[in-house]
Amino acid sequence: xxxxxxxxxxxxxxxxxxxxxxxxxxxxxxxxxxxxxxxxxxxxxxxxxxxxxxxxxxxxxxxxxxxxxxxxxxxxxxxxxxxxxxxxxxxxxxxxxxxxxxxxxxxxxxxxxxxxxxxxxxxxxxxxxxxxxxxxxxxxxxxxxxxxxxxxxxxxxxxxxxxxxxxxxxxxxxxxxxxxxxxxxxxxxxxxxxxxxxxxxxxxxxxxxxxxxxxxxxxxxxxxxxxxxxxxxxxxxxxxxxxxxxxxxxxxxxxxxxxxxxxxxxxxxxxxxxxxxxxxxxxxxxxxxxxxxxxxxxxxxxxxxxxxxxxxxxxxxxxxxxxxxxxxxxxxxxxxxxxxxxxxxxxxxxxxxxxxxxxxxxxxxxxxxxxxxxxxxxxxxxxxxxxxxxxxxxxxxxxxxxxxxxxxxxxxxxxxx
Length: 417
Prior knowledge:
The protein is of the alpha/beta class.
């Protein structure tokens, strides 16, 4: 079987899956086609710094490898390529982050050119060999909304459907109403889904719901990082668990942008004598437009420390030296691969309901609303549940992708019902 990935740049968040697929199909049968070279901020962060393997090539959407492959996994909305492959009867999987990020959200669809693009895309999805792999549950809701609208469900114009999903690569996505009818959620999960728009299907109930219609064209996906070397930490971590400090040492790494809401994390870590709340040690690595504001916010607080940015290769070392990673980003954060990396290194992780990786990989106990500083402060000072990486690994994703290629005809039958 020949497989090709189409993306914009060589990303450390996509290479692990590529390597896992190469191990299964062989170097001669795999191509990683990227349309751009890494540059600017990405180069300074260490992207594209490794030796380039022979199966990784810079090309265009007309590259021969994309035409010849039995399956193309595309991270780009390459409609022309999709249409050519559909006409040839070949499998094409589109892996996408959110279409309708704030602030415009679904209003993007009111732009005539965007509407025409979305309608054209929906036609591509109808092909027997086409499948959507939304990167996280928020992307899944966006995708279900646009596909539902062009399938004639006008309710999708006014709101995104509430969904439940299997938290694994290739996991199914179904409407909340179907999940309730088929009894795969308990009352607490149903309440969470009604409030936030999504909920996870318990692992022991995976495989009990069969998506139909447009939902048959959706399977969960994400970014899959390199394996970790850190032992699990904390009481729930198993036989090799390591204790974490109380209060824990917290870590944040990235570009200091408004959408990252690092200020919320800094406020949650500051001491509050009036509440008898001690300070949390917080190490911030990176720079960006919000740095000046953050330094003012942390002035006089010796538990919040600033550091220069570090290359991607060093981030995992920092994770092994800290206890908890916090992703306070708002809905602009399409995925957030640091969540996967932190889980791989045995860290406790807290993230917002609005972040892609947080909502998809973490249980409600480890989530908080973006901007809810008080809840975050409380969670940082209470025992934080450990969460295993589970099946969100490159190896499991590679197996899931190959399985989906084999199952594509069955999925099309479900779509047509």
